[in-house]
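Researcher: Good morning. I'm working through a list of sequences from a screen, and I'd like to move beyond sequence-only analysis. For each chain I'm collecting a predicted structure so we can compare shapes side by side. This is the next one on the list. No need for commentary yet; just the structure.
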Amino acid sequence: DVGRVPTEAEWNYAASGGDEQRPYPWKTTAEGPLITAEHANYSAVSPIAVGSKPTGNGRWGQADLAGNVGEWTLDFSAAYSETCNDCVNLTPSAERSQRGGYFDTPYAEVLFASLHASLEPSERLAIIGFRCARDFE
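Model: Good morning. Structure tokens for this chain:
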């Protein structure tokens, strides 16, 4: 279906609502309650069905960008550069970038759209998954 793993820049753009730079996918400001169980699956014992928290959907309707499972991105892990053209890091390294947050994290701060982590791709963990991205035509 021509789907692919998104780049870290694409994932961040979706999670932060593009030019709105949302702190969480559903929230346009940092004021008010950080996060509730209505928005994301976190501080839980297992993942839930995709799309079970529609109140937490992103600006363009993407589900589960915060909580549930973290998501692999196409990028290898590296320090961010000051500027970039296509913003994808395809220089091989031991770890790949991962975004999102996990169902078993007890801290809402870990679910901010701006946070990222990295893991070795050989690690198989129940807290990591992926989503498909597609190019617009």
